Amino acid sequence: MTLAELTRNCFQNGISATKWLSLCKLFISKESSIQSSEEVEHNLSNSVLVLYRTYPGDPDLQKYLRYAVDSGMLSVSTFTSTFLSAARSSELHTAGTLHSLCRISIDAHYASGSTAILSPTEQLSKMMNTIQDGLALLRTAQSLPMAHSAQLTSSASELLMLLLAYISDNVSQIPTRQATVFLSEANELLQTFRLLPDVRQMLETFVLSLSLFIGDEAKAATEAQLLHTLHYAGPFNRGDGIGSSADADIVTFSLILHHLVTYRGHRFGSGSGNDPVALLVSVYRWTSWTPTMFYTQLFVAALTCMSQSLANTLMWKAFIVGRLPRLLSSFQEVFVVDNAKIDWHTAMQAALSAVFLRPDLIVACDLALSRPLNNNEMQEEMPQSFTRDLLLHLLANGLINRSFAEEKDPGISKDSIPRLRSDAQDNGVDFENFIESKLTPDVTVADFGFWMDRIIRDVLSHATLAQVVLKRFASLASNWDVEDFGHLCRILYTYDSALDVVALHIKIADLLFHALSFLEGYDCGIVGDPQTAISHLGDIVLFVQHSLARFHLNNYEFTSERRSISASYFRTIGLVLPHDRFSNEESVAYKVWYKALFDSSSEGIEDSMLRTTKPKTLLRISPTLFIEALRASSLQRIDHEVLSNGVSYFTGPILNWTLVGVVRALIQEIQRKRLYRAPYLETLQSLLLSPSCPRTVLCLCAAQILDLLSDKRRPTSDTNSLNADTIRRAIDDAIGKKTESEINHPAAVRFTNSELIGMAAPVNAAEATEPAKADLHIEEQPRQVVRNALAMARAGRGPVIDVERCLGITPPSKFLDMLWSELVEAASLGETERSRRIATFILIMPRCSSIPPMLPIFIHLIVPMLIGRIDQQQTSEQALPTELLVSIISSALTAALHLEWAVQRVTSEHRTFLGQTSAAMARRLADELRARQSSQVSSAVLQRLAASQTFVANFPVFIGS
């Protein structure tokens, strides 16, 4: 347990401030002595402040803080610095919350009788940060609606005056660079806002003192350097001077990180080898951030995404701690090979130092991770600090020095061996063999669930788990071990957490290749017990179906070592095929199986049938077998008992793995022909409520089942023949009540049941700025996704846009047209930079094979259309959309160029993933712009692009334009 958890539990259980502080003292006294008193005070303060994110302005939280300060357990100086640092978070930006926190600090200072609100022993750098946070708080107070912020403006002004009173007499101690920052921020406040007279006078005095201290030459040199950095940031700058800089913008990385985690099973997802490394290299070159800024933005964005996630926190930790350091190690190797003289250690450590100054993020992540996976979890299995795990893994990958890690967390030097590795040592085996032993049939599927809850917490072991799973898939497939292979597949489709962890580290396509190869080549004719063998093959089939749907894999061709295998037959498993579409083998099998299942004279399924029928054949013929038997029963060609006997085989291990196709076909038959009567509804219910119905079947068929249950065409007189409530509960058990270790795809709005439920999560309240409207028309949902992303970026949060899902609703050209209208509106509010970054991500991110490349569509189809549309506007209205269009074109083409280079450099592939090369798109665009001689906007776009020296250096085709 941590201090943050103790505070949260006390608050949520109504514990008084007095008792809370007593418990805190007891907890601190039992803690290790490795924390200094300063660290204890910081943790105590942050443990309360982080709760304001969920309970803004709560009076009980105020009592906690006031009592802690009044008792002396929390010094005024420490509370002030931690509060002002936390106040930078947009989630605390409510006037009531900030005003009450200001008053606690101010009142406690006056009550103490001290002459200074900050401690004289405080480090100068920390003191500077606190004063800068005070300036930022006043800016926030002035920016909030006046109707709600009058009190806050007054208290924030008073607090800033106390801070400035302390530093004004010591201006000479301020470093020149920090003094320049203060001067800039103070001038901005004076010039932008109508300040209260007292604080204005003190700020003006402060500005005068700073100006005299740094001198005109230093100030001019600093301003010149700043302008140079903003507009000419090197040969790979972020927009070639077109568009403003965004060194404090986490939009780009938030979008990319969400894509890496969401589409972890795809090409350019987290588990796709070195592909994500190429993405990181391209971002580094495109943004032209310094190494320190690059790493800072990356980790701030990562922690922001993690702190926003409610249901997927453990998966984000698994990615940030378990996968990201390995990717960054490979990222650095690219530049080592290129002999680039970059001090990556120093950059990483400077970035982490900056990130660790964000206690609002750190504490929020630790709190989110503190929830146990189940009620039986032992205290010793509770996770250790998120930052400690991160530092340990960065250290293990050679990204930081041990001395730095121990400086940030002294407990690292005394860190014990993780419990799982200790268990392996106690058993006298290495860790890899220990994990492998848990994946054999000796460990039941139920027992594996308890063990999986432990390993999901031990992030440092995830990569080993993934490699062991891949190794076993390859060896079991080559050895034709159907029992062990089926058991491993059953584990993975039963426990999504295991499959998701594996997908973060290795290519799911490799697992599917081995599984499909096994299904294609396994011969039941040589086994002694074909009934058991076919049930194990069924587990492999269910794993393939589950993985294809869970990771939204639309490419059904899987290749390994120059051999390809197709899974295309899984596309048609829900179709009732006419007999003339069966192959000769399938026709023979159909007749044999129909007679065995639905003939009154049959003695059931014989072993010879199982030995001669391939799983693929059974998947293809099962829906037709089932539907034709039901039709025969309706026509009284077979009696009810014979039908029930045949159906019973589909609820047992011999055929229950074919139920995805059977259930889909049955529902389609019912709805298409309005067969809302027995035996159709009764048969469907018996299949869905059977104890042996695989969870995967309910997950993959949930959308169709729920559509049927809500179908208004179903006669009310037949409601008794279908127990809708029981079926819904069965679906909830399969897809709605997941453990914290499971992850789903994040989304900014709720999508309809036309999607596969269970394979894509409902909205996370923390991932949308507006509640999703259940009645929102499906065609409007992509627009809401874009609006939510812009709103999240505006609020300083990590935006997310699932482009693939949007394009499942709206065609690419229509989506891009809608996107443009939303970006223009955002740009009119001064958000051109965010709009540019969001557009660039959408246009250049490599996507699923079923999604057409977006950049060629935008450049060759949308841009000409937009130019024509802008030409028709009034001349006074053309400047903003023209500037935005130029900014997006320049940014997207430049980013595409760097992506091409990075992919070739990292993966040695020389094909384009964007439909066309950036050079080809630029050449065609230049020709098209020159051809539109009568268009004023076309000429303006051409001139602006040609005026950018670095853009022309990358795309010489624009020279002379």
Descriptive report:
This protein is mostly helical and 961 residues long. The chain folds into 5 domains: 173 residues, no CATH class; 154 residues; 134 residues, no CATH class; 157 residues; 134 residues, no CATH class. Helix content is 64%, strand content 1%. A two-stranded antiparallel ribbon has the order 1-2. About 8% of the residues have low confidence.
User: How would you classify the helix and strand content by structural class?
Assistant: mainly alpha
Q: How many strand units?
A: 2
Strand order of the largest sheet: 1-2
Number of domains: 5
Q: Name the assembly state.
A: single chain
What is the makeup of the main sheet? Answer: 2 strands, antiparallel
Distance between the termini: 65 Å
Report a brief summary of the structure.
Its main location: nucleus. By secondary structure, this protein is an all-alpha fold. The protein contains 43 helices and two strands.
Question: Which key phrases capture this entry?
Answer:
two-stranded antiparallel ribbon; 961 residues; 43 helices; 64% helix; 5 domains; mainly alpha
Chain-wise SSE layout:
Blueprint: H1 3-12, H2 17-30, H3 37-49, H4 59-70, H5 76-86, H6 95-112, H7 124-143, H8 146-167, H9 176-192, H10 197-231, H11 251-262, H12 275-287, H13 291-308, H14 313-337, H15 344-355, H16 359-369, H17 386-396, H18 402-408, H19 419-426, H20 431-437, H21 445-457, H22 462-479, H23 482-494, H24 496-505, H25 508-521, H26 530-550, E1 557-560, E2 563-566, H27 584-598, H28 607-612, H29 615-634, H30 640-648, H31 659-673, H32 680-688, H33 695-709, H34 724-736, H35 781-794, H36 803-807, H37 812-827, H38 832-844, H39 854-871, H40 879-907, H41 918-931, H42 936-947, H43 949-954
Antiparallel strand pairs: 1-2
Helix pairs in contact: 1-2, 1-3, 2-4, 3-5, 4-6, 5-6, 5-7, 6-8, 7-8, 7-9, 8-10, 9-10, 11-13, 11-38, 12-14, 12-40, 13-14, 13-15, 13-16, 14-17, 14-24, 19-20, 20-22, 22-23, 22-24, 22-25, 23-24, 23-26, 25-26, 27-29, 29-31, 31-32, 31-33, 33-34, 35-37, 37-38, 37-39, 38-40, 39-40, 39-41, ...
